[in-house]
Amino acid sequence: MSGILKVNTRANWASLNPTLLNGECGIETNTNNLKVGNGVSPWSKLPYFSSPGYWGSFWDLTSQTATADTPTSILLRSRDTANRGISVIANSRITFDQAGVYSLTFSIQFSNTDTAIHDIDVWLRKNDSGATGDIPATTSKFSIISSHGGIEGNVIGTVNYVLPVVANDYLELMWATSNAQAYIHAEAAQTTPYAHPSIPGIICTVVQVASA
């Protein structure tokens, strides 16, 4: 028999651990995750089939500064209203409604008003407001070019992470600058010398790539 659809909670599926018939489908009602039986393997041994596709797009339209050598949360105060299963709490905590494996990508516009080069570090922090939440091996260092000819030095920093989370986990993007003159730069839409849209200080997208 194939094409049968069964539903239960994640906890109940784990407790019962049934062996689904070949082609029989089981859905976790609280996560929307799906497994397809093969008539041999119990529930715990079956892989998840695809993913529900949770996603979020966030950005910030205000320049952000920080005291030198002081870890600071990067703020994300704007969002796509169609986001599904991912939200930002307290302006910086990227919060996940459902467990899964997620790809997180950021693009940050850095600027420097000083005539010397300054460094900015960016890294991930998880479920904690202190250094104990810092995720190992997630720091990237950007050397922000100096100002020149009366124009600020500008650098775009982009990094991608892929990592698993459980329901209600949150991630924060942290940054620290070696000098307060190097900062996260945002700019309103311009009409001269040519028209262009606003420049967000940061754009951050988060997409589920697998169930877990």
What do these coordinates show?
The protein is mainly β. The protein contains 1 helix and 15 strands, in the order βαββββββββββββββ. The strands form 3 sheets. Strands 4, 6, 9, 12, 14 and 15 form a 6-stranded antiparallel sheet that branches. Strands 5, 7, 8, 10, 11 and 13 form a 6-stranded antiparallel sheet that branches. β2 and β3 form a beta hairpin. The longest helix is centred in the N-terminal third of the chain and has 7 residues. The radius of gyration is 22 Å and the shape is elongated. The chain starts with a strand and ends with a strand. The model has no long low-confidence stretch (mean pLDDT 95).
Task: Describe this structure in a few short sentences.
This protein has 212 residues and is mainly beta. The protein has one helix at 10-16, and strands at residues 5-8, 25-28, 34-36, 55-60, 72-73, 78-79, 86-89, 93-96, 100-112, 118-126, 140-144, 153-165, 170-177, 182-184, 202-210.
